[in-house]
Amino acid sequence: MIIFGASISPFVRKAVAFAREKGIDIEHRPVPPHADDEDFKAASPFGKIPGMIDGDYYLADSTAIIHYVEAKHPDPALIPNEPQARGRVIWFDKFADTILVGGPAGTIFFNRVAAKFFGVEGDLAAADTAEKEGLPPVLDYLEGAIGNRDWLVGDTLTLADIAVAGPFKNLEYANTVIDWDAYPETKAYVDRVLARESFAELLAMDQAMVGG
């Protein structure tokens, strides 16, 4: 199995870490969006990352890839079968994609860091507004959702944790100011998830890219 995409993308990071938590022997090819790589273009015809090749099977989009991997490699289960737990895991995955990354985290990271890779000028005022006004309600929600538990859903790591914790590295790369004293459970939770071996190589690659 090959997963394409630069791991500085939280969507790529999520897909690769998910596969590694499964213990799957994957090849990660860290290509940028719209890379001139024939295999990548076959996997992701619109040039978005991540893309995946598994034998003669091609697939794009992190959610699609993750659900394919879960179905093909059900152990260990990272998306529970119990209906309520499954619903919560899928909610947190969408929360990460659409509310966290699609909201303040994405705005902050793009305008402070990613814009330069695309040769455009970032809107620093928009990043500042997202940091001061957009991010706190998201952190307030997470602090309550985590509580004093180790994991967001159940008593083991799930897709929910991989999806939610991953984007916090992009906030760090963007030098986001967070009053962690106000969010101690979230801070401990994010550190716990990102310390897992499944993230180690990805984060090292990211830091080399952003100069960390």
Salient structural properties:
Glutathione S-transferase Yfyf (Class Pi), Chain A, domain 2; 2 domains; Glutaredoxin; single chain; four-stranded mixed beta sheet; 212 residues; alpha+beta
Per CATH, the architecture of the largest domain is: Up-down Bundle
The tally of domains stands at 2
CATH class of the largest domain: Mainly Alpha
User: What is the average of the pLDDT values?
Assistant: 96
Task: Find the CATH topology of the largest domain.
Answer: Glutathione S-transferase Yfyf (Class Pi), Chain A, domain 2
The residue ranges in which pLDDT falls below 50 over 5 or more consecutive positions are none
How much helicity do the residues have?
Answer: 55-70%
Shape: globular
What string gives the helices and strands in order?
EHEHEEHHHHHHHH
Strand order of the largest sheet: 2-1-3-4
Beginning-to-end CA distance, first to last residue = 29 Å
- The number of helices is 10
* Largest sheet, strands/sense/barrel: 4 strands, mixed
Number of strands: 4
Strand content: 5-15%
Rounded to the nearest angstrom, the radius of gyration is: 17 Å
Structure class:
alpha+beta
